[in-house]
């Protein structure tokens, strides 16, 4: 149990850091000359809605309660760390890329006027992009998302009102909203509540030429998308694509855990939102290659290879696709691997062991990857050879090609399959 003094200490410390750093950056930016303002023409049509100051202020209350609702010290520490990281990134943005909002709000009286005056007592129109209000909305909302699963629809609606209130109270321009959202989800991705931070994940692979080639490819894409943002306007959205490709490049360096695929086959919300441009591209690629073609093919003994798109058609699925979400059946296991790089011997060996168990316990098993032409094929070939369903690799390949003609395996992968099958058999002997 966490005592009240500890909870209060976390709250006071977090709030103190917030008000000090936020006020300091406002003051420092106010000393500058010619602070720019980025506003789109259509924003002039946004109405001023005085009542939205209430949802705007409600974030303060939502911010406080988690300090007293956390169930463990680790959860409390994670919540406070997310707040601090989000604020730190925002402060750096305010200092190095200062913006301002020169819009004049209409005179407002009554309760709404009092709330606006209270806001103006410590806020100045300089801390703009990324919107710290949006960052905190996502971090705070993430806590309640897990706490109140039955009320998620209402929670989303209220958080949406809070998010758009930054525009209707004339506190921010539109640019501040998506940039704040990206930072907010980046914070959630960097500091997951369960599991280690991606930046501290132990490298799970030995880098070979395939990895380096793809790291370079996605890094170039990241730079290109970032440069497109200098055109301004709608091209600013390319920053999202740049961040997405940067994370994919990072995954090819550090390993498949960067995608944060959960045991139920879904990606974390933060990972999904950050990677959305890449996921859309990967999804279109699947549609292109599999249009009018079989999504899965039966190979041997009730075991099929195929795309994650066919997952709902089987009793059990062994998922090898580390980068894309899947609709998982009741019996679902993972042997996650990266796309377009050869699986390691250990990855293939462990996957074959899982497949062997699933095949013995279920009638119809799918080994799935994005297309069903690469990783899943390598796993099934390893299993056929390792369990002596066939005696030679060429025989296994012949069997596979009869079932699924378009398979993509390099000589290096075939060598890995042979080594993995030998390692599989050696483990069985030791057992």
TrEMBL record:
<feature type="transmembrane region" description="Helical">
    <location>
        <begin position="213"/>
        <end position="231"/>
    </location>
</feature>
<keyword id="KW-0472">Membrane</keyword>
<keyword id="KW-0812">Transmembrane</keyword>
<keyword id="KW-1133">Transmembrane helix</keyword>
<feature type="domain" description="Tyrosine specific protein phosphatases">
    <location>
        <begin position="346"/>
        <end position="415"/>
    </location>
</feature>
<dbReference type="Pfam" id="PF00782">
    <property type="entry name" value="DSPc"/>
</dbReference>
<dbReference type="InterPro" id="IPR000387">
    <property type="entry name" value="Tyr_Pase_dom"/>
</dbReference>
<protein>
    <submittedName>
        <fullName>Phosphatase</fullName>
    </submittedName>
</protein>
<dbReference type="InterPro" id="IPR026841">
    <property type="entry name" value="Aur1/Ipt1"/>
</dbReference>
<feature type="transmembrane region" description="Helical">
    <location>
        <begin position="48"/>
        <end position="69"/>
    </location>
</feature>
<feature type="transmembrane region" description="Helical">
    <location>
        <begin position="271"/>
        <end position="291"/>
    </location>
</feature>
<dbReference type="InterPro" id="IPR020422">
    <property type="entry name" value="TYR_PHOSPHATASE_DUAL_dom"/>
</dbReference>
<dbReference type="InterPro" id="IPR000340">
    <property type="entry name" value="Dual-sp_phosphatase_cat-dom"/>
</dbReference>
<feature type="transmembrane region" description="Helical">
    <location>
        <begin position="128"/>
        <end position="145"/>
    </location>
</feature>
<dbReference type="Pfam" id="PF14378">
    <property type="entry name" value="PAP2_3"/>
</dbReference>
<dbReference type="InterPro" id="IPR029021">
    <property type="entry name" value="Prot-tyrosine_phosphatase-like"/>
</dbReference>
<feature type="transmembrane region" description="Helical">
    <location>
        <begin position="81"/>
        <end position="99"/>
    </location>
</feature>
<feature type="transmembrane region" description="Helical">
    <location>
        <begin position="237"/>
        <end position="259"/>
    </location>
</feature>
<feature type="transmembrane region" description="Helical">
    <location>
        <begin position="182"/>
        <end position="201"/>
    </location>
</feature>
<feature type="transmembrane region" description="Helical">
    <location>
        <begin position="152"/>
        <end position="170"/>
    </location>
</feature>
<feature type="transmembrane region" description="Helical">
    <location>
        <begin position="7"/>
        <end position="28"/>
    </location>
</feature>
<dbReference type="GO" id="GO:0016020">
    <property type="term" value="C:membrane"/>
</dbReference>
């Amino acid at each position: 149990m966490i005592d009240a003094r500890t909870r209060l200490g976390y709250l006071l410390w977090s709030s103190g850091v917030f008000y000090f750093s936020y006020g300091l950056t406002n003051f420092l930016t106010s000393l500058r000359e010619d602070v720019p303002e980025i506003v789109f023409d259509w924003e002039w049509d946004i109405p001023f809605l005085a009542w939205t100051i209430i949802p705007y202020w409600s974030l303060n209350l939502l911010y406080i309660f988690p300090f007293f609702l956390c169930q463990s010290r680790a959860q409390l520490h994670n919540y406070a760390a997310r707040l601090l990281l989000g604020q730190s990134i925002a402060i750096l943005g305010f200092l190095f890329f200062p913006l301002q909002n020169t819009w004049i709000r209409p005179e407002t009286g009554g309760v709404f006027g009092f709330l606006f005056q209270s806001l103006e007592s410590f806020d100045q129109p300089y801390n703009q992009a990324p919107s710290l209000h949006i960052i905190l909305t996502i971090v705070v909302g993430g806590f309640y998302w897990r706490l109140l699963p039955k009320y998620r629809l209402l929670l989303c609606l209220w958080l949406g009102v809070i998010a758009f209130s930054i525009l209707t109270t004339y506190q921010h321009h539109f640019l501040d909203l998506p940039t704040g959202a990206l930072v907010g989800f980046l914070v959630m991705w960097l500091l997951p509540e369960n599991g280690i931070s991606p930046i501290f994940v132990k490298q799970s692979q030995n880098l070979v030429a395939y990895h380096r080639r793809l790291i370079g490819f996605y890094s170039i894409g990241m730079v290109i998308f970032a440069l497109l943002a200098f055109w301004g306007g709608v091209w600013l959205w390319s920053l999202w694509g740049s961040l997405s490709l940067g994370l994919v490049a990072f995954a090819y360096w550090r390993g498949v855990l960067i995608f944060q695929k959960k045991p139920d086959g879904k990606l974390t919300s933060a990972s999904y939102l950050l990677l959305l441009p890449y996921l859309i591209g990967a999804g279109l690629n699947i549609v292109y290659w599999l249009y009018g073609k079989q999504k899965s093919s039966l190979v041997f003994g009730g075991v099929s290879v195929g795309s994650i798109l066919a997952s709902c058609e089987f009793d059990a699925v062994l998922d090898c696709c580390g980068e894309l979400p899947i609709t998982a059946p009741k019996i679902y296991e993972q042997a996650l691997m990266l796309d377009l790089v050869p699986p390691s011997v250990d990855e293939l060996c462990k996957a074959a062991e899982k497949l062997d168990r699933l095949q013995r316990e279920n009638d119809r098993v799918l080994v799935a990857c994005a297309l069903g032409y690469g990783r899943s094929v390598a796993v099934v070939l390893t299993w056929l050879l390792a369990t002596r369903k066939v005696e030679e690799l060429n025989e296994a390949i012949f069997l596979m090609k009869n079932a699924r003609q378009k398979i993509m395996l390099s000589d290096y992968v075939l060598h890995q399959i042979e080594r993995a099958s030998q390692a599989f058999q050696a483990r069985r002997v030791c057992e």
